[in-house]
Amino acid sequence: MKNLLNPWVRSACLCIVAVITSAPSYQAQENAVLTVGTESVSLADFKHIFLKNNRDSVITQAALDEYMELFINFKLKVQAAEALGMDTVRTFQKELSGYRTQLARPYLTNNDLLNELVRQAWERKQEEVRARHILISCSAQANPADTLKAWKRADALRSRVLSGEDFEAVALSKAGSDDPSVRENGGDLGWFSAFQMVYPFEEAAFTTAVGELSSILRTRYGYHFLEVTGRRNARGEIRAAHIMIRTKEGADDDTMKAAEERINSIYDLLGKGISWEELALKMSEDASTASKGGELPWFGTGKMVEAFENAAFGLTEDGQISSPFKTSYGWHIVKRLEYRAPASFEAAKRELQKKVSRDSRSELTRASFLENLKDEYNFIINANAMKSLKRIASKQDSVFFPGHPLANIPRKTGATTLLSIDNEVATISDFVDYLNIVKIRSAEAGANTIIDDQFKTWSDKLLLDYEDARLEAKHDDFRLLMEEYHDGILLFELTDQKVWSKAVKDTAGLEAYHAAHVSDFMWEIRANVDIFTCANETVAKAARKAVKKNKDLIAFQRDYNAENGNTITLTSGLFSEGDNTWGDKVLADLSNGIIPEEPPYFMTYEGGGDEIVVVHVMAIRSPEPKSLAEARGQVIAAYQDYLEEQWVRKLRGNTPVEVNENLLHSLAD
Question: If DSSP codes are grouped into helix, strand and coil, which group holds residue 417?
């Protein structure tokens, strides 16, 4: 049996090794639709690539032939890059490894369960639950004795509630709830929906009937049990604005009464037609929103204090204004600006997928996936080896440190198989090496707890790495996707060297190409004009006069506007068709024989409204070649096409290419 690599060494090289071995290396196949040199492409692979790039097209023989020519060129270029060793360069391998890590993620989870959790989350987002809870704090790293003590304490408190004691009284009693907020809320958490609580708590809340107690549950905070006190349809989200008069907790009656009178006076002014924005700016004591008309960000349940939410969601129309109401922050008037109901599943699906993937519930998909891998790859733990490991570890205290018994484990013991995955094994020494690298330090947890936790982390990583290394063999779509990235990066790099950057940097080649193809880069007929957009005929006359007197037209425009307001705008230039609206009119009139071919002269057109457009036509330029400076962008693009054409012709001349046309055309509709 082969020994599994040390996981930390393995993780550093796994992606690079997998990527390199996934590069195209087909043997000649009976169903090969294309052979380029020694590389063959199967009909199935070509079909996959063709359909990916021609999703909405009817598959015709002509379309297949055209795409095949492009695909052959693509393959030839990639092979040229590989022949130069570009796929062995460290930067290439690092870039492709990074892409592979991202692309592999969807293949390393239980997607069926993920989809179920997304659907569950959406269904829960259609509801809101109200609950109160009692918490007994317990660290995730607590030793078994402390964990059991915490659970027993939670169980005793739950039994008191079940026997008829008041929930709030139990929560507030001595040795009751450890939640610091219990003094203010008696354990009441208010209304909430999916993603607003940690997932185990959410799960208990949504699966417990109203008026019932949940079982004891564990979260990262400790042990809880909860009572569901209400359930309602989700409220959706609202965008609102408010005007606030602040009050401080413990203020005397006169101060509180003055605040109430002030908010009522603002409400009266709104009723008399004073604008909301003006009153919010001048009178609201919420400095963060007053200058914005009191506008608040979108919010839903659980984002604001309950009294504020109730008032806002109680408004039934956009623009509706509430009566004054009080919260713990002061007095408010709220205005509904916009409302949106809970999103449909299709609209919410993508965002929910992201949330589920980031949420603790994603651990469920990972755990389920790992269990499936254990079955698939015959994952076996050597129970006796684990016992030996724990026996050695427990000879001293629970802290792992240099010189601890595990740091100098006997060679024979270290060589013992600890687990196996298919025909590969990992030894006790492999695991100890991992423990020494991660440098476990825990004065609270016992040695057995540390070993169990770290063994799970380590063995899970081995399983995922084992699966990761086999993704190309197991999933054709992943293999083809990786080949696409592999080939795409190589193609980009080599094409940049051979074509794109070369065309830009090859000054002599660019000049020679331009000289040999000068007739390909021509100016069309152009009008050299001054265009005056004038407010009225008086301004137009002034413009014509300025031209006739040969004045500096820019200075004329500046001085005239200074005296008469902005009544004239000047645009000058040499315009081809499509460059300028009024230049186009001149060229059209010239083409239609309306104006003479020999300038100079004036043309007058109607602008928008009372505007008059005076065009001084100074010259009409016949078609003429563009200089390299004038046509540089076009010349570079054409030169790039030329370089690529020459490159492909050379590649085709040096490499045999064979297409099975009958097989290819079998894909046609």
Answer: strand
Q: Is the dihedral angle over the CA atoms 481, 486, 488, 489 positive or is it negative? A: positive
Asked if CATH classification 3.10.50 holds for the domain at 522-623, the reply, yes or no, is yes
470 torsion bin: left (phi>0), alpha (psi -120 to 50), beta (else)? alpha
* Local structure of 499: helix, strand or coil: helix
The answer as to CATH 3.10.50.40 being correct for domain 127-233 is yes
Fold that domain 237-340 belongs to in CATH: Chitinase A; domain 3 (3.10.50)
Domains of the chain, by residue range, sit at 2-107+475-493, 127-233, 237-340, 377-468, 522-623
Enumerate helices (H) and strands (E) in the chain, giving the number of each: 27, 20
Q: What is d(CA 286, CA 279) in angstroms, rounded to the nearest whole number?
A: 12
Please determine whether the domains at 127-233 and 237-340 fall in the same fold group of CATH.
Answer: yes
**Residue 618 Cα distances to 296, 533, 577, angstroms:** 59, 17, 16
What is the SS3 assignment for 29? coil
Taking the C-alpha atoms of residue 661 and residue 34, their distance in angstroms, rounded to an integer, is 9
**What is the per-residue pLDDT across 372-382, written as a single tens digit (0 to 9) for each?**
999 999 999 99
pLDDT in tens, 432-447: 888 888 766 555 667 7
Residues facing 613 on adjacent strands: 533, 605
- Categorize the per-residue pLDDT at 332 as very low, low, confident or very high, splitting at 50, 70 and 90: very high
The C-alpha atoms of residue 345 and residue 352 are separated, in whole angstroms, by: 9
